[in-house]
Amino acid sequence: MLRIADRIITMKHLSVLEHCHMTFAVKDVSRTLLAQYSRHRIGVSLSVQSQRWVSEQSSKKEGGIFDFVVPPEIKQNKFAWDTLLISMSRAQKDYDYLLSLGIKKEDARFVLPGGVSTNFVTSLNLRSFFDVYQKRVLVPGAQWEIRKMLTIMAGLLVEREPWLQKYLKA
Q1: DSSP symbols for 52-99
Q2: Mean pLDDT in runs of 10 for the chain (170 residues)?
Q3: Kind of pairing, strands 44-48 and 21-30?
Q4: What pLDDT does residue 52 have?
Q5: Where are the alpha helices (DSSP H) in the chain?
Q6: How many CB atoms lie within 10 A of CB 13?
Q7: Which of 36, 65, 133, 162 gives 20 to 30 Å between its CA and that of 151?
Q8: Distance from C-alpha of 33 to C-alpha of 30, rounded to nearest angstrom
Q9: 2-50+117-167: which CATH number, 3.30.1360.170, 3.30.420.10, 3.20.20.370, 3.30.470.20?
Q10: Do 109 and 103 form a contact (C-beta atoms < 8 A)?
């Protein structure tokens, strides 16, 4: 069976891979990552945490700021970290203020940055996964956060189906 799978993949007869499906629950990633990932729509399904129904009010997290993703480059630079924290704090205050004015969450969210954390569930077929992996992991210059997410997904796939290791090398 693995010999047939290898032949199918090697010969690029990838439509057969569309019958292999997987689902991942993704947690604590940025809305920026979501915007990138959602561009890959063929064979990919998404259900995203709603900012309309889920509040980003300041009581959500210790420190009074919504959850957000911090790029490693910013995390390593004290001045950059301070700047990001000031910006996030300001966005939180603005969001809370809009809500206090009676603005609906779905409209108040417009002041939130792309770094705000979100969660989503995604299902995709193996052909689509190979395509997204190639574009977001193997291509030089791919953004760090989506590369990290797809590398973790690939690790989970290989853990379940070790024969895929050959095709998912970073």
Answers
A1: TTS---GGGSTTS---B---HHHHT-HHHHHHHHHHHHHHHHHHHHHH
A2: 78 82 95 93 82 57 77 96 95 94 93 93 95 94 95 96 87
A3: unpaired
A4: 62
A5: 2-10, 31-37, 72-75, 78-100, 105-108, 126-133, 144-160
A6: 10
A7: 65
A8: 5
A9: 3.30.1360.170
A10: no
CA angle 104, 47, 140 (to 5 degrees): 110
Q: Is 136 a catalytic residue?
A: yes
What are the tens digits of pLDDT across the range 63-99? 578 889 999 999 999 999 999 999 999 999 999 999 9
Paired residues of 123 in beta bridges: 23, 45
Look at residues 135, 131, 129 and name the one whose alpha carbon lies nearest to residue 154: 129
Residue extents of the structural domains in the chain:
2-50+117-167, 58-111
Residue 19 gets the label, from left (phi > 0), alpha (psi -120 to 50) or beta, of alpha
Indicate the residue type of 5. A
Phi first, then psi, for residue 116 (nearest 5°) are: -60, 140
Of 109, 127, 136, 147, catalytic:
136
